[in-house]
Fold:
Amino acid sequence: MLRSVTHLQGFTLRALDGEIGKVDQFYFDDKTWAIRYLVVSTGSWLAGRLMLISPIAVGKTDWESKQLEVVLTKKQVEGSPDIDTHKPVSRQHEAEYLGYYGYPFYWEGPYLWGSMTDPAALAIQRSVVAEASASRAEKEPADTHLRSTKEVTGYHIEATDGEIGHLEDFIPFEKTLSAPTTHRHDYPRNREHLQDLSRELPGN
Structure:
């Protein structure tokens, strides 16, 4: 089933030992259009600090109670590397973050999630040598490929023969967290947006 990222905003995230915050927004990869991180507002727990949570950590989703379970402890989340979520996240920062949790680098491999096609499968292959991954962070380029869903909301959409609307929401596949209507080879490298085109169809 497809669900928009707007629908997920405000969902509560629960760690193994308690609540850690609520979903504020998402970061997506501007090359593959896959959702790479949830941005979580920690509220009073960490003085409103915004944290990144990888979909690799997400377990069960309770749609009725609007809760996401993550396979992490509150101590792990609290100790994770600081990342300025108000700016695009660089590959170096990603490498440091993934190394901290011992996650494989999703950009190393032939598939959307590196060696796997979805983040749940990648979680099974979680690295047991976090220090080795973290040490590689310094070697990663400072390229920035992540963008906030809030940042691009409202961007204008132009077809080859004129404007057709603006970005309203993202509706990724639930399993892979990739945008179902875009493919890397179908769009220009610098494309900025997706949109719900329903308002452009006759009768809407």
